[in-house]
Amino acid sequence: MKKIVTAAFIIIGDEILSGRTKDENLNFLACALGENGVSLKEARVVPDIEQEIIDAVNAARKKYDYIFTSGGVGTTHDDITIEAIAKAFGDNLVKNEEAANLLASYYGSRLTEIHMKMAYLPSRAKLIENDILSPSGFVVENVFVLAGVPRIFRAMFEGIKKEIVGGAKIKSREIKISLPESSIAKVFADLQKKYPQVIMGSYPSETGASLVFRSAEYEFIDISLEEMVKILQEIDPKSIVATS
Amino acid sequence: MKKIVTAAFIIIGDEILSGRTKDENLNFLACALGENGVSLKEARVVPDIEQEIIDAVNAARKKYDYIFTSGGVGTTHDDITIEAIAKAFGDNLVKNEEAANLLASYYGSRLTEIHMKMAYLPSRAKLIENDILSPSGFVVENVFVLAGVPRIFRAMFEGIKKEIVGGAKIKSREIKISLPESSIAKVFADLQKKYPQVIMGSYPSETGASLVFRSAEYEFIDISLEEMVKILQEIDPKSIVATS
Predict the structure, then answer these.
(1) How far is A123 from chain B (nearest CA, A)?
(2) Nearest CA in chain A to B151
(3) What angle do CA B164, B166, B167 make, to 5 degrees?
């Protein structure tokens, strides 16, 4: 059996907590990691406070295989992520020559001292390749530091995908039903007990519920889902809206 | 000066972490709390694992004034929030007569044992009033337990608003600029140093940046924002796209 590889996502940003900005990276990352055989196990939104970032990163990097952060890597005084990551690792910021070269070629004659601030990274940081080039994200051990702007976050994720060694891919199937979940709660719980290899979840909707079957052992998804279909057909054939 | 009242939000749900469902409650709660004088300081998404929920709730309830949870209060086997909350408080689930009466009047002759499961709450739980009635959320000390379905989450929040004693309301103003944030980073940092009462943030966009001024001391927002407007007019009068 393949190993389950885990990840946590730390979203750094007062603007998410104040409600000014809606996060758009969590759902993208959850889906993208899933496709690469990594299970997102936790996500946190922390404020722009150095110690909070340090604590969140240090708690997560011991617990999960990969950590991703978003936000706080720009050039203004409220961008404190890079320094916080250095401190989390007991590391210092030093001029990263590769980053400095990238910035110089990106900004050309417009390059200022402020831009060059972005080249100061933890001494153990490795740059993340991306098509946008500036600002660059980086990785220290298992912590990937990405920008918060969704377009840049996605470009950076593309650049790091090959660094991620995924494990078992979780497959998911689903039955949409027109019944309230309370009416199938008992039979569904019995089915879960019979197939512990499959994580079964019920998600109520305005018109009924979705019964979701997730597992890295695909054959058990199909067997248990088909068994649930039979049970539903006995209760009421019209209760099955769709299976996928 | 009014006290800053703080909150944390714990989103319970494998479906958010797997990417199947996009969370829609965080932004609503952040805005609604802000309007009621409560600052959201942290948000977490935790999986449907009892110990993870217990640990997240116990860490947060000591650190913040109010805790809100969403998800896992339904009738299926994967709904484990209520029991986890009881355990976090070292409490037991007992039949809550008020909840039982609500369920009986809501379901009438359709009431089953499964529905009645929702009446078993921590012994110290107080029901949350809401217009939807079933399932009901509840509160134990400073922890408010709400449903995950956005429509029900919002209805429950309406029901608990009067239980929340807010503090200083944070007001926010903003300057949209057409310049990249790197070009104002130095002057903006100097302004932040001059007005420590105001939290100043810069958020890059595809067309420039938004400079945000937030504080519970409103007069300083206006003074510092107007000073930034003057600085921008000196740099380039056309750089100011809008102020609000």
Answers:
(1) 23
(2) A206
(3) 160
- Tell me the nearest-neighbour CA distance from B183 into chain A, angstroms: 8
Check if the interface score ipTM surpasses 0.90: yes
Q: Show the DSSP H helices in A4-141 as ranges.
A: 14-17, 25-35, 50-63, 81-88, 97-107, 113-116
d(CA A213, CA A232): 15
Q: Are B47 and A27 an interchain contact pair (Cβ–Cβ within 8 Å)? A: no
Buried residues in B22-53 as b, exposed as e (16+ CB within 10 A): ebebbebbbebbbebbbbbbbbbbbbbeeebb
Tokens, residue B165: 């004693």
- d(Cα A65, Cα A62) in Å, to the nearest integer? 8
- What does the CA dihedral A141, A144, A145, A150 come to, rounded to 10 degrees? 180
- pLDDT averages per 10-residue partition of chain B, 244 residues: 90 95 96 96 97 97 97 92 97 93 88 89 87 73 94 90 90 95 93 96 90 94 97 94 94
Question: How far is the C-alpha of A33 from the C-alpha of B48, rounded, in Å?
Answer: 19
Short-list A113, A99, A103, A100, CA closest to B186: A113
The DSSP string of B115-169 is HHGGGEEETT-EEPP-SS-SS--EEETTEEEE-SSHHHHHHHHHHHGGG----PP
| pLDDT tens per residue across span A142-170 | 999 999 999 889 988 988 888 899 998 99
Q: Which residue of A has its CA nearest to B38?
A: A18
**CA B203/CA B124 separation, integer angstroms:** 44
Which tokens sit at B160? Answer: 């608990």
Q: Is A111 helix (H, G, I), strand (E, B) or coil?
A: coil
One-letter amino acid for residue A33 of the chain: L
Q: How many other C-beta atoms lie within 10 A of the C-beta of residue B2?
A: 11
Segment (H or E) for A135: none
Contact status, residue B136 vs residue B99, Cβ threshold 8 Å: yes
B215 — phi, psi (to 5°)?
Answer: -170, 155
| Whether the Cβ atoms of residue B95 and residue B125 lie closer than 8 Å to each other | no
Query: Using CB atoms, which residue from A47, A151, A189 is nearest to B77?
Result: A189
